[in-house]
Amino acid sequence: MTHYPDNTERAAELVARRTRSRNWMEDNFYAQWKTVYKNYKSERDVQKDPDGQSDFTQTSLGMPDTWAITRRGVARTTAQAPNLRFNARDQAIGDLISRTLMYQWDKGGVQRNQKRHVLQAFLFGWSVRPWHFSVDQYTRSKRIDPLRPDLDEATLKQIADTYGVPAESLADPVARAELLAEHSRGRLLPVKYKYVAYQGPRCDFLFVGDCYPEPNFQTLQSSGWFIVERRRNREWIEKTVKRFPEFKAGFEQLLRDKPHGSAEPVTRQGTADLREMLHSAIDRRQWTADSFGADERDPRWTILEQHTPGAAAKLALVAEESAWIGEIDYPYDLDGRIAFTELVLIDDLLCGIGDSVPRIIRGLQLLHERQVNVRFDLIYNLLRPLIGTSNRELYENADKALKRHKGFRLVYMRGPGDLWMQTEQAALASAAAGLQDESAIMRLLQFASGESNMSMAANVDPQQARTATGARILAFNQDVLTKDLVDMFNESSVKADGEMMFLLNRSELPDAIEFDAQPYDRNYSVDRDQLRENWVRAEPLHFQVDGEITAEIGSTMADDDESKVAKATNLFQAAMSSPGLFNVAKARDEFLTAMGKGRELKQWAAPPPSPPPPPEIRASITVSVKWELLSEAEREQLLTRAGIQIRPEAGPPPGLLGAPPGDSPLVPPLGAQAFEASQGRNPFDEEMGR
Question: In this model, does residue 617 exceed pLDDT 70?
């Protein structure tokens, strides 16, 4: 363990670490970052003459290659807010925390500085995002009617706190009426109360030039220390002292020594400042207060913060590179982490500061600029006619006889044979050949950056099979690099941001959060009323469960919707072609959700089929009677109602063989024959007719 006789040596060691880190970054990165920033701003690079001086006679243009590649990549990557998922054993709590994190992402303004954070990583290869837990509380005013009989206890307490009266006395309507008579405004009583606008994680943008990691570090969370330099005002000092009394003595000594703050920036001996280098690269002067001294109206001090990750995480502060403020245990319980997340889109083999496309294509952009500049000068001079003359007097007195204008030269002519036009076929051929080199440079830039109009679905257009091999190689290259960009952004940034927000909530969330979960609903099959009833209140206890944060792949990409529509369309077509293997209703819901109609699933549902018509009612009645007890009229009436026709009595036709002589016997009707047969009797019995 290092022994410190006094705090002066501790402050000196922290400053020495910062200086060592700055020297390491200056030797390895600052010059590259300066060139990249200059290319990003399309600043021209003036060519030098043989003496090393700037040659302003040569054309010098800055091409927007880096600007276009960077802005397109940032816009595609940060077009949408990420879709965070918290996976826990209890799926209900997991869904609740997922919605809470996305609500805090919007409410805390994380997406607002997301573009600057990603832009810095695109340019320099590394960007750091600081986090803190914020409770935005301020005093609100409202006017109420104190004579209402349904006033709740919270409103009575607000009245008591505003006017300094006992809350018990306000139970009497007469006391409230006296307050109304004395302080009324528009027949209402003004009341002030505390309002919490937001409580949860919040992040800031941190310039990479103010970050000083341990040299040759791999990740911030595994490094030995990480130092940040910031300018702080008196309000920040008062809030810090109020929360951490351990810093009180150090800040009091600082205010006594430098009550009016310090000038910006603090003198840095023997080292370069990245901010100043970037300003000089674009011919912009950095404004400082050195000429005017400290600003007495808004004094600020330079504070060095040393964050030490690990099981025994620490936070140490040094002001003005000499005043030791103090050291405390880390203010947040983040499982040994420090409150920073970093973004690296292209990993580097040697350290945690990654590569970037602008740093890789610096040579290509320089080549492109030189070719354009030379071509511009060549074509500009070719447009000015070259005139030949045999008149020595004109040649020797060219300054008097020759007038130069933009685009042509006018010569005073003495006779028709003194001047003639001189064609430059070789120069014209070289200019034409130089125009064809533009496509080769663009192809090289596409190879290096992977930028195209291809979507992240990595679906190559089938028509490209008919094109040249080079175009197909470019298409596959762009798809692979785009997919790699999506994966790296989710793994190195979005997932880490979600984990940091969850840990800050677990460590610092004081009260429950109530919010409308409807804008963050991704499960459209759940009824909205049920969702609003169950998922609008996140308690601090909910964040004490263990789980894993994941980010939906490609949820931040600009062409994410296009990719989802293509995939949902293919899935729906497969379900329609094979309904026995797929759930067609599920595929339909996925298709509508991808088309942006997820909240209208019930409206897009097909109407239920109309029910079939009711079957015709056919009644069947069985009557059991003793036929022999019925009269002839009753028999006829019964058979008629049953729909049985009675055959009239008639003798056999003449000449019928086998007919006995005399009267013909009585033949019972057909219905009666069937009835008698069902009863086990002979229908031709003589008593049938009786």
Answer: yes
